[in-house]
Design goal:
The protein is of the alpha/beta class. The protein has one domain: Amidase signature (AS) domain (Amidase signature (AS) enzymes, Alpha-Beta Complex), CATH 3.90.1300. It has 15 helices and 11 strands. The protein has an 11-stranded mixed beta sheet. Helix 4 links the parallel strand 2 and strand 3. The longest helix is centred in the last third of the chain and has 26 residues.
């Protein structure tokens, strides 16, 4: 049985589980399974074993630093790691070795995580799934013929397969919540500014969020506790106290007000029957447990997506313009073609999108004034075949996640069961800025009342 972070932490603290044994178990799974899944760009077994031995000796002598001490972990390969290549899954940065850790990498190291390696991503967190890069795309552990979503694809696959107990992700338009939904794990995009992005390769800086991915809601709360906090090196970092993200776990949902954004998943982008049943089941659970559940109407998904994608494309092209002009053939075809769209946008387009963004935030605040949480889909259904994902999928139908990059509000993805193909489906819960403890409270209540966390992908070595 693969433990959650919370379970493993309790066993390590009680001297019933060795960080060395746990690390060996995770490395063993990675060595057996990653040939199918390609979740890792770089597996670092010797470094992981050395870190696990050091953690075990420290814990025996002094006790654990906290719930992450001795926990096998890995970083999405846009997180800067000192002395270890950080490639963004791209030929452009194939030889790039940072001189310092990203702020969040340093924070997690101080908490005692055991780094097993660097995880696959879509190229520069936007171009995927691509088959013309130095490393293949990650595949879904529930069925390796299927997609993981992106861009935190390797993290989604590695956590679901039990190769690590947690990992980092980034989310500019849904890149934590999408892979969490399709891979059947939990992922939170925190409030904009809650986690530093210093040392993380950017995609679109006014939309980029850093956050954790793990098997359970409580595990994500544990990880966010270590990652959050003000950082002067990130100009968007929020200078405010970090709350106890587990403080409200176990309090249930009685008295909470939940707004179901029904038009998102029934009209604007209709979801599959299994996804809809999961959302309706969650709403019924919240109502039965004493929450007030009503429909809420926000601006349309199409409006949020038009605004968000113009901002994302313009800012992403600004990041890559010099490299694109100097060596466009170093990029994979998919990312190169997507970035070119940003080069066709004018300053007026960008400024109008930012103006529209302010209006969408105001409309969302007004519509949500009487609610504590919002509920909708995270993905339209089960993971599609990886070979069948269109190059322009993000433009063909509006997605459910980018609205909350536009607003900067926190959103969490929680599994709600399985579809007809046996692959996971999920819901998305959203809270107001810096209300992560409340978000964890409701998501944890749902998760612990259902059996989805008892089932792992059945992979053949």
């Amino acid at each position: 049985m693969i433990p959650s972070i919370a379970e493993a932490a309790a066993l390590i603290a009680a001297r019933k589980l060795s960080p060395v044994e746990l690390t060996e178990a995770c490395l063993g799974r990675a060595e057996r399974l990653d040939g199918q899944l390609h979740a890792f760009i770089r597996l670092m077994p010797e470094e992981a074993r050395a870190a696990a031995r050091a953690a075990e000796a420290r814990i025996v002598k002094e006790g654990p630093r906290g719930p992450l001490d001795g926990i096998p972990f890995a970083h999405k390969d846009i997180y800067g790691t000192a002395g270890i290549p950080t490639t963004a899954h791209s030929r452009v940065l194939q030889e790039h070795v940072p001189g310092a850790d990203a702020t969040t990498v340093a924070k997690l190291a101080a908490a005692g995580v055991i780094p097993l390696g660097k995880l696959a991503t879509h190229e520069f967190a936007f171009g995927g799934p691509s088959f013309d890069l130095p490393w293949p795309p990650a595949r879904n552990p529930w069925n390796p013929a299927h997609f993981t979503a992106g861009s935190s694809s390797g993290t989604g696959a590695a956590v679901a397969a039990g190769m690590v107990l947690g990992g980092t992700g980034s989310d500019t338009g849904g890149s934590i919540r999408g892979p969490a939904a399709l891979c059947g794990i939990t992922g939170i995009k925190p409030t904009y500014g809650l986690c530093s992005r210093a040392g993380i390769l950017p995609l679109a800086q006014s939309l980029d969020h850093a956050g954790p991915m793990a098997w359970t809601v409580e595990d994500c709360a544990i990880l966010l506790q270590a990652m959050a906090g003000h950082d002067p090196a990130d100009p968007a970092s929020a200078n405010r106290p970090v709350p106890d993200f587990r403080a409200e776990l176990g309090r249930g949902v009685r008295g909470l007000r939940v707004g179901v954004i029904r038009h998102f998943h029934e009209t604007d982008h209709p979801v599959t029957a299994a996804t809809l049943a999961g959302i309706e089941g969650a709403a019924a659970f919240f109502r039965a447990e004493g929450a007030e559940v009503r429909d809420v109407v926000l601006p349309s998904l199409a409006e949020f997506n038009a605004c968000g994608w113009i901002i994302l494309l313009a800012e992403a092209f600004a990041v890559h313009e010099t490299w694109m002009r100097r060596a466009p053939n170093l990029y994979g075809e998919l990312l190169r073609d997507r970035l070119v769209l940003g080069g066709l946008l004018s300053a007026a387009d960008y400024l109008q999108a930012q103006k529209r963004r302010r209006a969408l935030i105001a409309a969302t605040e007004a519509a949500s004034a009487e609610f504590d949480l919002l509920l909708t889909a995270a993905q339209p259904g089960e993971a599609p075949l990886i070979e069948a994902v269109p190059k322009w999928a993000f433009l063909e139908k509006p997605n459910f996640t980018i609205p909350f990059n536009v607003t900067g509000w926190p959103g969490i993805t929680v599994p709600t069961g399985f579809g007809e193909g046996g692959l996971p489906v999920a819901m998305q819960l959203v809270a107001k800025p810096f209300a992560e403890p409340l978000l964890f409270r409701a998501a944890d209540a749902y998760e612990k009342a259902h059996s989805w966390r008892a089932t792992r992908p059945a992979l053949a070595a």
